[in-house]
Automatic annotation (TrEMBL):
The lineage of its organism: Eukaryota, Fungi, Dikarya, Ascomycota, Pezizomycotina. One of its GO terms (biological process) is epigenetic regulation of gene expression. Belongs to the histone deacetylase family. HD type 2 subfamily. It catalyses: N(6)-acetyl-L-lysyl-[histone] + H2O = L-lysyl-[histone] + acetate. Responsible for the deacetylation of lysine residues on the N-terminal part of the core histones (H2A, H2B, H3 and H4). Histone deacetylation gives a tag for epigenetic repression and plays an important role in transcriptional regulation, cell cycle progression and developmental events. GO terms for cellular component: histone deacetylase complex. This is Histone deacetylase. Residues 791-802 have a biased composition (Polar residues). GO terms for molecular function: histone H3K14 deacetylase activity, hydrolytic mechanism. It comes from Oleoguttula mirabilis. The keyword Repressor applies. Its EC number is 3.5.1.98. It is an enzyme of class 3 (hydrolase). Its main location: nucleus. Residues 488-748 form the Arb2-like domain.
Amino acid sequence: MDLDDGSDVVMHDGDVLDSTENYTQATGTSLGSAIKAEHDSRGRIPRPNTLKSVTPALKGAGKKMHSLDLNPGIDVPRPPKFSQLPYATAQTGLVYDVRMRFHVESIPSENDVHPEDPRRIHAIFEAFVHAGLAWREGSEGPSNYYMGRIDTRKVTKDEVRLVHTERHWDWVQSLSTKTAEELVDELQHPGEYRQMDSVYLSPSTPYCAALSAGGAIEACRAILLGKVKNVFAVIRPPGHHAEREDVKGFCFYDNVSIATKACQREFGQRCRKVFILDWDVHHGNGIQQANYDDPNVLYISLHVHQEGRFYPEKSYRDRREPYGDLLHCGEGAGLSTNVNIPWRHAGMGDADYIYAFQQIVMPIATEFDPDLVIIAAGFDAAEGDMLGGCHVTPAGYAHMTHMLMSLAKGRVAVCLEGGYNLDSIARSACAVGKTLMGEPPDRLETFSPTRSGVDDVNMVVRQQSKFWSSLYPKDMSARLAGPLQGERMHDLVRKWQATTLWEEHEMSPLFIHKEKLSKSFDNQVLATPNYTEERPLLVIMHDPPEVLASPDPRTGKIELHNTWLTDIVKTYVNWAVEQGFAVIDVNLPKHVTSDDDAQKHEEVDEVLHRTVEATHLLTYLWDNYIELNDSSHVFLMGTNTGHGAIINFIKANEERAQDRLSKAISFVEDVPLQSCKSPTNDQLQSWYYGASLVFVANEHGFWHSEFARKSRKRFGRLEKSEENTISDMLVANRKAVTDLLLRETEKWRSQRPVGDDEEMAGVSAALPEPVQRGLPPVGNFALSPRGKAISNGNFTSPNGRQARSPRIGSPSKAAPPIANSVLSPRQRPS
Ligand code: X5A
Ligand code: ZN
């Protein structure tokens, strides 16, 4: 065996422990001076074998654990008290050694203390003592309930080599003989094979890193040897970012992976399968790498990912592709035993974590059925952590711990990783410690996971359902992306709408010049042929129709017979056409697809972004199709982001809007209500008040704001709807809208030539002429998704003045319209 020198295990050193463990107000600097006292004249920490050692060295892995018997303190683990309840009456172990505080910045920076602060482990130990969980000289005692103290020791080279390269070991070792200046130089001019990323170095770094990894091993061994029921290892430096040959993210040795492999080697069948749960807010790239092809190590990590923008992604020397995304599921025999739960946003809280545990972690871990559970327990997702930006509470950590304790007959080793707010980590660790000791978790206080959190979890379920028989619904994306070549329903529905609007009202697409084009833009803007004529023009900017589905509970499939589409906007279009109005119908997609994401789940685009897009579109329509025509009236109607677009447009085009716009009608369900206040024109808001009608959902937050009582006028003429969804509001308030439009157009209606339009509308509604009419001119005015204009010669110039040829589909391409005959499922009009 490849062993270190004879000093590789040093047990309790009375002097050091007594002088520092009671150092209750230890700070970075005061601790620094306590440590400096032990440095020799050259400013180096003595080699461990010069520290007074009270026990003989324990060499190598797999030797009998002697320290448990040798240490005569009150906090030594005792055997279970009651053989009928061996687990319940056994103690929780505690690994903590003050010497792990020696790893400090060699030249401390003045103002900003490095977050991976030596006080971190002290703060946790201190909190344990104060909470009565851990014993310290001077604590009341003896108590039967303290954690049982387990000594740490230095990891051996042989153990480190289970995970890291020899070069990695040698380089870490080499730090111990360097001066402060040399260490700074090492950081600033990293050698050819190494690039420093988020670490600091001190001569005692190799020593502390060795104690940290050794502590993780001894924690697990104590459980597997039956000395304790579970363990909390308060260790530093952390480990989960350290890779085979890289120190990274404050980490030197991958403590948890080293402990895993050491225990698998020592205990064989008794510790064949290890489950590592990593709740540090960062992805544990090191743990993933070390166990990626091992079917006997299940690694599950919950971490903020932000689509690759969060640490440690983008920090790899080899510039590798995202490593912590949900597609990384292991390789070879280890395919399926790597599970990433990447949060696309920070700000996750208890409810998100509990949801992930219930939907993913516990089903998979239960099916995996481990012999040992190790928690890579960073507390940087805790409320108050400055690096994580999340909100997990102590009760949240307690519940996660509690759930994990149902696995592996309760064999849970908690190993500290990150966590940088001293107060947060102390409180979180206490909650975990108490839970390990048998105390039921505190009540949770938040229960609603965030929208994106639910999406993130369900995406992982979908991915992992390929590998785990306990996960449903099963994924179907492979089928979609394969020979089936699924199309987005959004695009199909809009195509169908275009077909019906063509058949019933001869509505056809207006050319929209868009830089970034996608299928979702085809057919977005449909107009009746008379939109340039002297008659009222109604422009409706609306959300896509609502789809209500009852998915198959097992497969997640949405069957068409269990799916309903409600398109209330259509009834407004029908009504307006009957009145002889021209109509421009604008569909505002909730997500704009791009070519390469055709079969992927997409979150709804941000409201702000969608509103900006809708504003551009409205401005374009106004410039090219509305302003220059002969309309007698212009009515703008908008739902949700359409409302925002109308207000934005008015504010940016005060004069033009006031000149031509007759009424602006809005329906607002789940977007902010916009005011029409202009900084330069006081008169604008009173004009808008007179020209608007704004329906606001019954439960919209506005009604509880102070605006609802005073200064309402700037929001236009508000109507509180009885209803709460756009569809319901459009139904319930239709009469108010149509009455308003009738009143506004009274004069025009009494003067116009009789018969003309009603006749046309009546004919097309009663007597469709499918074969003659042919297919609607879908795609004729829009650009194709690839950005190429498809034109068959009938091109409407963007100024909208040119006459439009109403029938464009060539008769040879004619296919029966949807209403008149049914196409077989595979058949397509060619
Ligand atoms: C263990 C851990 C975080 C590193 C952040 C570097 N490391 N910016 O939490
Ligand atoms: Zn972290």
